[in-house]
Amino acid sequence: MPKKFFEDMAKGKRSQRMTPGRVSVSPERPAAPLRRPPEEEEPEEMEISPEWIPEIEKTEKKFKKRGFSSRKKARSRYGLWLLAGIALIFLFFAVSLLFSKAEITIKPETETLSLNGNFSASKDKSAAGLSFDLVSLSGDESKVLQGGEEKQVSVPAAGTVLIYNDYSASPQTLDVNTRLEGSNGKIYKTDKKITVPGLSAGAPGSVEVGIHASMPGADYNSSPLDFKIVGFKGSPKYDKFYGRSKGQISGGFQGTSVAISDGQKSAALAEMKDSLKASLLKKASGQIPAGFILWKDAVFLEETGEDLKPADSQGSATYTLHGTLYGFLFPEAEITKEIVQKTMSDYDGSDVNISNLKDLSFSLANAGSVDFATAGTISFSLSGSPSAVYKFDSNKLISDVLGRNKSDFKQIMSKYPHVASADLSIQPVWRQSFPERASEITVKVNYPASN
């Protein structure tokens, strides 16, 4: 019995030294099922060796410190991100304000008119009413004709002369076939009736006219000449009226030559008139000052002479037409105002432009009897369907909207009565007012295209 008692005590001590949670089974008997007694529902506290306590406290402090530091860093990161977001939003709005702009698109009011009216204009710009300017260009057109049978031909020499009036301020009329004595001692005659303008600001008046030799033949062909008017000989006018030829006097011939039929000459002359008028009109159009209009029907070709040189041995003859183109120029602003006043019953004096002004038809009254070179006043008619467009003052609108609220735009535009539509765009889209600098506001006016 004592032996067995000491063995049981030894077994009990070994069981106490075992690691908690492990069960030692005696080889003499089977292990009992692992059941916790009712009184052991709470976990059994583990005994801690005293020498472990410093290490445990040290580890606990270390983990506590690490956890606190991590949370602190996390909060710092969240704060930085928040500040960065606020800064970006502020920067976005600041940059948007720097690049703010407003664009206004205006479509002005237009009105189609019906025009068929008479007008008058004066060359004197100091006179009341409409004024005009005169453009004149001289030129030649030639055509080679092929002749037929030989026949006796008598052709007088021809050329162009400038007649000057250095006598008085009064104009001087000279009849057709006025005799001029050339510095070569031969007599030539004017091709038509002319009026020589008087002195102006101390300068002699002048007019251009065609001349022909008083007799046929090559003897009257000449290089440029000076002329005196035979009819003024013995009077004070003789030395004060004089002429100088423009270029050579040529074409004089008398003898046998290949003949050019009258039908050939008539057809060639009509063709040369059209060609000469077209070429001179093209030159004149390039010389029109800005702000003036020259209607294609307001130009007139005046023939100043023609030459038909004798045919050569091959039967070819050169036919030349000399002419001067006269065109009436009108200030666009003046003629537009006259048209609007005649056609608009409710015209309120606003600035108006006519987009198709060049399309109107011009007709000069008594064109056959007008002396283009000396005409001081003219009467004419205009007809067509002018398209009147009201002008818009962009600078005034910019001044009116500077710094104003976007909601005021409709009220501001009510002060502009002749506007068909007005569209507004402000950038950035969230901005509710116009920029305060004029350079940031653009006004586009969509006028109809001018013809």
Annotate the secondary structure layout.
Blueprint: H1 2-17, H2 53-98, E1 101-108, E2 110-112, E3 115-122, E4 133-146, E5 150-165, E6 172-174, E7 179-182, E8 187-190, E9 194-196, E10 205-216, E11 226-229, H3 237-240, E12 241-245, E13 253-258, H4 262-285, E14 292-293, E15 299-308, E16 316-331, H5 332-343, E17 352-354, E18 361-364, E19 377-384, E20 387-390, H6 394-401, H7 409-413, E21 419-427, E22 441-445
Parallel strand pairs: 1-22
Antiparallel strand pairs: 1-21, 2-20, 3-19, 4-16, 5-10, 5-12, 5-13, 6-9, 7-8, 7-11, 8-10, 11-12, 14-16, 15-16, 17-20, 18-19
Structure description:
This protein is 25% helix and 33% strand. The chain is elongated, with a radius of gyration of 55 Å. It has a six-stranded antiparallel beta barrel. The longest helix has 46 residues, at 53-98. The protein has seven helices and 22 strands. Among the domains are: 55-95; 99-109 and 389-445, no CATH class; 150-258, no CATH class. The chain is of the alpha+beta class and 451 residues long.
